[in-house]
TrEMBL record:
UniProt protein name: Phosphomannomutase
Superkingdom of origin organism: Bacteria
Length: 81
């Protein structure tokens, strides 16, 4: 299950792990104009872990999800010949 909320400066997607007993904590993805953050609570340390991706890194990640193993360089649309 997931939810999408549009806030003043970000779009926030919350991913809820539904299923068998070994569930992970919710993942919160916040998309800002200049970056994307991914947060998840870690009950072992009682802390929220946060990763910040630039928009370039986020586009690379989105492209990488459907590609086979390898090393790639993604060109921006205005860089294509």
């Amino acid at each position: 299950m997931f939810s999408i909320e549009h806030e003043f400066d970000a779009t926030v997607v919350t991913l809820v792990d539904e299923g068998e007993p070994h569930l992970q904590e919710d993942v919160i993805v916040s998309s800002f104009e200049e970056c994307v953050t991914v947060e998840q609570y870690d009950p072992r340390t009682d802390r929220v872990n946060k990763i910040t991706l630039s928009m370039t890194q986020m586009r690379d990640l989105a492209a990488a999800i459907s590609l086979p193993e390898g090393v790639y360089t993604r060109q921006e649309p205005d860089e294509e010949e």
